[in-house]
Amino acid sequence: MDTKILRDLSYGVYIATTKYDNKNVGCxxxxxxxxxxxxxxxxxxxxxxxxxxxxxxNMFAISILSEKSNPKLIGTxxxxxxxxxxxxxxxxxxxxxxxxxxxxxxxxxxxxxxxIIEVDTHTIFIGEIKExxxxxxxxxxxxxxxxxxxxxxxxxxxxxxxxxxxxxAKENKKKNIFVCRICGYKFESDLDELSDDFKCPICGRGKExxxxx
Length: 213
Ligand SMILES: Cc1cc2nc3c(=O)[nH]c(=O)nc-3n(C[C@H](O)[C@H](O)[C@H](O)COP(=O)(O)O)c2cc1C
Fold this sequence. Notes:
The protein is mainly β and 213 residues long.
């Protein structure tokens, strides 16, 4: 069985959001499907704070990233927990049906939870669409774009995580590869060192957070 075939499934990149206890919460997700004309499903890991908060509120939104969206959104929402930080601090958002949606995206879909399916590590939330709108006509960011253009990695809590992903790096022997310890962003360089002002384009951390592999 070659589980690498699963990497050939196609996805987009989204921020799933909700509100609980007067606090805006959310996380980066790739797992969104349209189930019927007026229902979508998202898959959220049991360990994610967003999971608990959607169960409490029974409402969630997805904001759909475009290729023009700031990639830092992926890091802020995908490599931190709303348990620890306010992810919305430096992010422009607005409330739709009292759920925060992110403005630096191409639009949003707001849903009421109508069904919940527990599957091993993840909960599938089925949401009935209550409101949706486009902000612009930019090109939606695909998961492939995230991997190939932004050199992003799949974190442990994403359903698409495959444990041996580090093996990919070993295949590239010609260049030095620097990996961000926070978000897993990989930077390839002919040089042995990163420059002092180097910043991770995904999570914004500096050169000291990078490890050469
Ligand atoms: C590109 C990307 C895709 C992700 N996809 C999912 C996903 O589909 N489902 C999920 O549960 N977590 C996914 N994650 C991981 C969560 O975003 C991450 O665990 C986050 O820190 C959870 O935050 P929270 O504790 O505030 O909910 C993804 C992360 C990234 C960077």
